[in-house]
């Protein structure tokens, strides 16, 4: 096993899947000759040639629209949108076509494609380079919405996404692209899409998060143990849609307390859906109101105010303690 | 009418020095995120902006600093915005790609191609509310592959809207050579929508000024849109710290870092046949070589010294002018920085 960053682990997944299956083709702005602005597609052009690592014009609607055609016809396109903030020109293609073709054709066609995009804040960049709008995609029937939290699960989930028969929107938290390394096996490893994992076991309270927010969430759980003697269970969702509500509602039935952490905006955000599922499935065991620690309902502010926007350990701790006091 | 170079050069020089100061602050880590400079575009921006009047509107792209500065926006406000200060042009929340000035009817977007529809809407509003005023759209040639810009050309044409589409073509969409991702000629596209197209050397402010002068006259008098295709060279590439330029300017420092992963990819088992791999490697080498002879390295492509050459006829006046501008900028930067230092 080698220690890898998330960028290297994603690159491993793409390299191996392209070796495994000639139908896998990556396309996007600067993904070929350059190797991608974050280097995720580094070396694919040199290894697989220009017919499988396509440098497209700067036009997101065309990139995704073409990938849909390729997928329907029999290829396995992996389209990169350079930043998730540029995805809206392609939103029509994603929402109106990629997500609906299986349903509309009554299963006569499916769309096996992946749309990869770096997303979320924490790198001191401007708004389109910092936002978390995963709710749009999780809200859309027909799409799968995956968000890894570390190198190892990023690699295993991307492999599954490429092999999935349906369109997968794969958001990569860019602030942890190179923030830490993990052991990633060279041999094939897959993780099932639609399954969450318990990142830390506990019985006093359930913390639910995903993506880059797993780090402050886990750090808060450690501090709760050290400072309050409380054992928090931490759930890493990994997939937002389809949402694995069995794992976290079961956990809440055990702990009676839940705090949801995400950097997406608060209103109508993923936390609202997660809280509803807890209400539906674990209401009678709740000991305290469910708390949400989220980004605010504003465009991600630039630079000086970015850290104030982002949930951090202190905000998670204070929500957890309020929940525990209730 | 002929352009007055004694008016245009100060606009261009001021913008250049201002953006160089921005570059220094960015290198020092005082401005965060990526930084897209307009250095190399000054002749185009000055040729256009110097001819705007009250009530004219501008839709800007991710390189809007020069246009706002030349339009008369307080440089101190722009600088504070880039530094993320609450006293900045937009409260320090937008940053360099999202600059707005209501007084100057100027709005920008970091999204490539977005200036097309915005300017077309400005033009429609101008026609309805203040006949005789016009709108400008600034964008790069990469934007010409975005559908929304094509839709704008069509609407501006069919409704004869007073908009000038200014395409600043440096031949590169970040690291992708535009020629490899763009079919046909851009002027032909404009013609296809019934929009007259003018090709101009965007490094020569006199030529730009004259071409824009006719386009603006046409727009003001109800003649409809014009597509101006101006070639230029971005002296810092797509953004600060651009890898290709870095590699060529500092080969000893940069090439080893690139060579290892390249070799590893080349030798990786599986994948394309050797012939295709060699072709891929040759292509990368070709891009590096092309960058070595890159126009960005050639001062002849720099519009600022080019126009300065013509003003050497009166060196005393020129030097006095340059001293004054440089002095002003030093004060502006010092004043903005004075606020951020602890």
Q: Are there runs of chain B of 5+ residues with pLDDT below 50, and where? A: none
Give the topology string of chain A: H per helix, E per strand. Answer: EHEHEHEHHEHEHEEEEHEEHEHEHH
**Main sheet overview of chain B:** 7 strands, mixed
Largest interface: A-B, 43 and 49 residues
* Percentage of β-strand residues of chain B: 5-15%
Describe the global form of chain A: globular
Helix content of chain A: 25-40%
Largest sheet of chain A: 7 strands, mixed
Number of domains of chain A: 2
Q: What's the alpha carbon Rg of chain A, rounded to whole Å?
A: 19 Å
Categorize the overall geometry of chain B: globular
- The end-to-end distance of chain B, rounded to whole angstroms, is 52 Å
Number of helices of chain B: 13
CATH H level, superfamily name of the largest domain in chain A = Thiamin diphosphate (ThDP)-binding fold, Pyr/PP domains
Low-confidence stretches of chain A: none
Number of domains of chain B: 2
* CATH structural class of the largest domain in chain A: Alpha Beta
What is the gyration radius of chain B calculated from CA atoms?
A: 21 Å
| Average pLDDT level of chain A | 95
